[in-house]
Amino acid sequence: MRLSSMADYAVIIMSAAARHCGTCALIEQAGGPPIRSRARVSAAQLAEETGLPVPTVQKLVSKLTAAGLMRSSRGVGGGLKLARPPAAISLADIVEAVEGPIALTSCLDRVKSDCTLEEGCNVKGHWPQVNAAVRGALAQVVLTQLVEEV
Is pTM beyond 0.70 here? Predict the structure, then answer.
């Protein structure tokens, strides 16, 4: 089993975003007390830091935002930030944002199933357990672990 390039890139982008946006900083407000807020980063900054093309980063940021893993805001002080703390975002969340539900076979997908052996298959009933185990393993790895130096 191997992740697609896009899923791999999404993990790289989220790790870079976590390095920029993962900690709360005091932000000065004009005429008011400072507030705690997560820093923001631009798609161009993420592209430069990761070495990925800007269009690829933009496409993945769109998927990650749609999945509720990132937030985007326009204008002065705008940019991208994590929608949740890095410790609350798992590798499974990121992969599913790009690839959809984690499944090792297509036979469980009623829309995309193209298996010619499906009618006589004796293992089809076991795939949900295998898929759950793989998803469970990916869910145990959180974004904070991915930004730690090894």
Answer: yes
Q: What angle do CA 64, 103, 139 make, to 5 degrees?
A: 55
Identify which of 111, 100, 39, 115 has the alpha carbon closest to the alpha carbon of residue 71.
Answer: 39
124: Cβ contacts below 8 Å, ≥ 6 apart: 107, 108, 118
Residue-wise pLDDT for 80-97, tens only, equals: 999 999 999 999 999 999
In this model, does residue 66 exceed pLDDT 90? Answer: yes
By C-alpha distance, which of 85, 125, 87 is closest to 108? 125
